[in-house]
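Ticket opened by: R.M.
Priority: normal
Category: complex prediction / small molecule

The reporter submitted a protein together with zinc ion and asked that the result be attached to this ticket for the collaborator who will pick it up next week. Submitted input follows.
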Amino acid sequence: MATQIQTVTGPIELDDLGPTLMHEHVVTGMPGWETDVLAPGQTRRDMLQISKDRIAEMQDVGVRAMIDPCASDLGRDVEFCAEVSQASGFPIVAASGLYNEALGGTSYWKIRGMVGQSGADEMAEIFVRELTEGVGDTGIRTGIIKIASGSGAITPYERMVFEAAAKASIATGAPITTHTDDGELGVEQQELLASHGVPPHRVIIGHVCGTGDQAYHWRLVQGGTYLGFDRFGIESSNPDEVRVASLLALMQAGATSRVVVSHDTVWCWRGRPFAPDPNWTPGQFCRRIVPLLRAGGATDAQIDTLLVDNPRRYFSGEPLPPLEGEGA
Ligand SMILES: [Zn+2]
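Result attached by the on-call engineer:
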């Protein structure tokens, strides 16, 4: 079992990990942003100020750490994350991995594949290097692996990335977190990773709060992974009211130990910023969602399980506890 978590400023003891948001982004750039030469995005100084403000908002409501699962093809900047982390004394975990085929920076790997030179082994080698030695020559290590699928089906390209992630996870002990398009293909992601030997409790299936289908959520629970209720505040894709009802249903069914929470906020955009939902800031869960959960019957202990126990257990590699009410 791991006893430490790797942050951009070095390892910290898992026992010291406080309330943690499992999916927020300091900076993101969708591939192609660099062609928008008339709007290159915020200056580094502006970015630093925005990031410090966002962290202060989290600290005000008791959040003590976050995971930034930015894939390496979406404008990831681990040095900037380290600067932000140092300036605010707030631990941030960065990721290795690649985004989905539809929206990621895939050309390089596809062309290598066309000439028969690409494979999961090359990608896995990169992920392992970043997880164990650092990104490029920065010496800044990543602490988690991020992978993604799009809509309809997991593509051959995405399957290659999943295989690479599985290899790197097994080799290093780093856990995996995924992007789904609003929860779609979560079961397929579970099956694919399991087929490559990844224990389900090392995996978070992300963005499953994009659907209010509670039977589907329960299927994911039975698949033995964590579920990412990680887009609170993105009401344009699903109202928070539906997210809260779905989360309460899981908690009432005894699956509190299976869920991690976050907002998937992006603080700084490369290129032109995308118009945000008004409630899309990283203090929202504690400030606005927790009271709704309490009103729906959730206890303080259950809220702590979501924010503290589950992130610690996921990183430690400890198996999941039985569902509440089971094995009693
Ligand atoms: Zn994200």
